[in-house]
């Protein structure tokens, strides 16, 4: 093999007679090897291909864009005496017909290429580079439809052969011929190059942000992501076909969606929505993707415990951006999980105010997925469905037998085209299903008490381009809630051929829900208006104080029975624990507003809410004189964690120590035990660092001083996670500008 240099010249080793010769720079026959050395110009090439953040030592290029390579021969290259033949191969059983083997040469017409060859590479010589001295400067271009992955470049000249380079080829959002092409540079920078982001969590009324370290350019992650591709079931079953299909971002995105969860394969993350997390850490612990991907890779591809939707999405975004597919994380509030495909979500309540039974359907406070940008010629030829596509790596339902989801065209979701691939019906329901509330009586009978066509799919959010501001993109997914256009699209979606049929009105009868157009009469009429209001901002560690406002247009006095219950909730709509309940009778005077106080002490909810930050407060109200009339009011309260402060001391310079201080005040009357601090951040910490801390007495401050050695320049985000016996995974961040 010829000696390879990243940027400069090394003396020769050689390959002769079609195979490697590791003995030096002469062949077996004693003659001098033709191939003396190869210069890869890695720093230059990687900078031009925007991969130098990954490595300056390993050649990583983007398809559809040329890169430079210099071959030093022991004698002048004279085309008339024979061509320089080059092959590029990836994967097992490489072939021209599948685009995983490419034959090209100088001169160009000297290759005996298959007529059905796909993804043909090109090489152009720069004859000004003194060919008579044997120094050949080449420009090599992998086409814009090259399958991504690791390649080996081999050259043959005058009966000798050598390996020129082992390189990685990625998708190229800067190339107009690549299916992932994005026209605007600001978006390319945001959705491929940015390593830090924001994931929105909480609820529609309590939107909060979680800063996330995607960290896609950490040096070892390129091998992690290639490993994800190489152990997917499709590759294990048919590696040649899988390698060939990696030319297509639709295929790759769907594959990554399946491999981030571990339900069907050796995927990255194991999901858990329980209250305990044996042999792992709670999903709330994570502040980024890097540690998760490294643990999976170093643990022989055993799933990392544990993840939930925002973790699955954050990790998938990291992998997609590294592979070169523009990607962003999206949060849908009041997100529906429609299990039977009828575009209706059924929620059940008991006549004493607490959810009576688990419905197979559910409404999540929020759900997080990703969008990838790509063309969709598999749907139409007119580019109608090109652009953002939904991928969801959280294992909810199987798609063609596998726990994955997407790509689902956002344009198709907006238009109600739910019969298109992939998983359009499921994603459409997540953002636009109708919600039906049922009251279950002790004798097993049930009554429909409320129908809401506008509850599902609120404040669909992603991070803005170039800033950490929240961007509401709900209009990308559906027309204004309640408008004629929105209702007509919903009605159109229910007629598409993939919806289940057989029951009256597309399966939506009295047992399963309301008519899809929301036109069913809802009983009782809305004579009573009820609304929860905060008395104070709900904070973890403090009593939660609300009030229920009740009024009526009636001109008569009404005696009402109030059934008020409070439950700890998982964010995906399941009840985790009953916190408290009370029943009381109150009198509503005509023309007056009735105020019902609701107090949930920390001493009551603290232990129940340790692993959850959401509680549902429900009021089921019955008119004592008209017991058939029942009214429901609900409020999803998301607790805000107590603050944690981070201060960086002094100027921060590359490879030089700098200090920071973390401060946390104990807000409760108990001592905080088992305290720990986890620090992370690409460019600052090469791996997550955990520090054990002393107990913190009531009303005392915890101060922790840490010294760090940053290894990358530029604006970086430091992530802090504080954990103790009472408060779990309190997050803090600090933006640091690292100078040379």
Task: Give an overview in words.
With 740 residues, this protein is α+β, with helices and mostly antiparallel strands. Helices cover 15% and strands 37% of the residues. The protein has four domains: 3-170, Immunoglobulin-like, CATH 2.60.40.10; 191-507, Transglutaminase-like (Coagulation Factor XIII, Chain A, domain 2); 528-638, Immunoglobulins (Immunoglobulin-like, Sandwich), CATH 2.60.40; 644-738, Immunoglobulin-like, CATH 2.60.40.10. A six-stranded antiparallel beta sheet has the order 21-20-19-17-24-25, sandwiched between helices. A five-stranded mixed beta sheet has the order 1-4-6-10-9. Helix 3 (221-230) packs across helix 7 (290-298). Residues 8-26 and 497-526 have low confidence and may be disordered.
Can I get a quick summary?
The protein is of the alpha+beta class and 740 residues long. The chain folds into four domains: 3-170, Sandwich (Immunoglobulin-like); 191-507, Coagulation Factor XIII, Chain A, domain 2 (Alpha-Beta Complex), CATH 3.90.260; 528-638, Immunoglobulins (Immunoglobulin-like, Sandwich), CATH 2.60.40.10; 644-738, Immunoglobulin-like (Sandwich).
